[in-house]
Amino acid sequence: MGNSLNKNSKSVLITIALLLVLNAVGSFFFHRFDLTKDSRYTLSETSLKIVNQVNEPLYIKVYMQGDLPAEFKRLQQETKQLLEEFQAYNKNISFDFINPLENEDSSMDNIKALYTKGLTPVNITVDDKGKQSQAMVFPWAIAYYKNKEVNIPLLKNIMGASTTEKVIGSVQHLEYSIADALNKVTVDKQKKIAVIKGNGELKDIMMAKFLLQIRESYHIGPFTLDSVSQNPTNTLEALKKYDLAIIAKPTETFSDAEKQVLDQFIINGGKSLWLIDQVTAEMDSLYNPAGATLAYPKDLGLNDMFFKYGFRINPDIVKDEQGSPIKLATGEQGSATQYQDFNWKFAPLVYPESHHPIVKNLGGIKFDFANPIDTLKNGIKKTVLLESSKYSKKIGTPVEVNLNMVSEETSPNHYVNSGNIPLGVLLEGDFKSVFQNRVLPFEQKDFNAIGKPNKMIVISDGDLIKNQLDKNGSPVELGFDQRSGNLYDNKDFMLNCVNYLLDDTGLINIRSKDLDLPLLDKNKVFENYTQTQLLTIGLPLVILAIFGFLFTYIRKKKYSK
């Protein structure tokens, strides 16, 4: 008996000694093990770089605490685990989960305060075994660093998705949301974006939501080309100080001197984002007694530039069976008027099929009167980011567009040898100047005919960046269509375009990270509720009881000798 006791004591001492040695060695090495199939909690290299930038205390308030619906409990858990992962790599990061509705007396004040910060709640219907109730959830967080703060959206709004599907999609974007916020509060703005003006481009209020979003990461400013007529050289030198030029839906023809300024900006390495309409056609012009408008070609004087760069935007409009919904009045006018959803084929709803980081994992993107893009062979690499469905075709202009077209009957035979029309293209390479071997509109001593490696994105619809205005004249979220109530992924696409052009590809790669998150089928759970309880609660208890019985039996049998 004494020998057995000594052996056990030695085993215990050896085990303790080994644990102490492992603990001491482990203090010099840091590694976290992620046993999930999709490496869900393994931070990307970009996230780790951003975490290392936090050299002072950074505090995050997460407004998801309390009695949450089941779907949001999962989002809460995933958010907590991911924040713990960020915190493990940098102890300057701390966070708390807060319930803004915990105290009934102060809950209204808390809600108003969050509203003023732009944190809007989500009202959802909770279905518990057939019993429905309403719940308010704030799926938001705020990051505080030094004297700056930034909102962190935790719930991604996915058009037509259930609450569960939205939560699953949000978990996939969680690392991006947190890393992007940390990057905004810790890194000073460096790169500059010029929003080109002077040729009838969109007014700032019509793309306010987009500008406000990119302003958090970049310096932005309006840049008018009006001064080209007085001093084109100074205008070009001023534009060269910017990293990206956005040309959003111009309506007036560009002069040759203005084209030379834009051309030399591109040839000298300036990135460009073109949102161009080659046809004049607006949805608002359809809402008249006739319900019709004339779509006709628009000459911006840019065709020779585009041709030299390797693409062409045709003055046609794309008609797509995969259109966006539009509400139109049916029946008699007056109190009996009813509204019905129709498929509007001149507003293509594009679901990206490309695996390029700019469009990967994005949902539907809405166009309005888009034009076809042709790509030309000239040594420039072209990547089609967005294209119409296979059941689409080009309609030549001028042509009358009428709301009665929603009732047209079509078949696949109408789309033979058509479809898959490019609507958004990325171009990368060494661009050649449109003024190569031509007389220059104005004298330029440092004129370059062949540029350095560069990239640009061309979108054949200026409305893609355009936000609607509510009845008070305030801009609504980019991608939100007030007529149908649908929210499209226009904003995420535009942000990805800017990030990619300005070489912030790391954040895009986080956004396009693939996670395998299976959905729970609630209907099956309700149908087999008792069976589910037995499997999830009863079976583990039975296994534990069997293990306890066997352990006790073996132990008695061993020591009874």
Overview of this protein structure:
The chain has 561 residues and is α+β, with helices and mostly antiparallel strands. The chain has helices at residues 2-26, 45-52, 70-89, 104-116, 163-172, 174-186, 208-215, 232-239, 256-267, 303-309, 490-501, 505-511, 522-527, 529-559, and strands at 58-62, 93-97, 122-128, 131-137, 140-145, 148-153, 192-197, 219-224, 244-248, 271-275, 279-280, 292-297, 311-313, 316-320, 323-330, 338-350, 365-366, 373-375, 381-387, 392-396, 399-402, 422-432, 450-459, 480-481, 486-487. Helix 2 (45-52) runs parallel beside helix 6, helix 6 (174-186) runs antiparallel to helix 12 and helix 8 (232-239) packs parallel to helix 9. The chain has a 7-stranded mixed beta sheet. A 4-stranded mixed beta sheet has the order 2-1-5-6, covered by helices on one side.
Main sheet specs: 7 strands, mixed
Binned, the helix content reads 25-40%
Mean pLDDT: 86
Number of helices: 14
Task: Based on Cα principal axes, name the global outline.
Answer: globular
Distance between the first and last residues' Cα? 11 Å
Strand % is: 25-35%
User: What ranges have pLDDT less than 50 throughout 5 or more consecutive residues?
Assistant: none
The strand order across the widest sheet is: 8-7-9-10-23-22-19
Instruction: Please compute the radius of gyration using only Cα atoms.
Output: 30 Å
Structural class: alpha+beta
**Strand element count:** 25
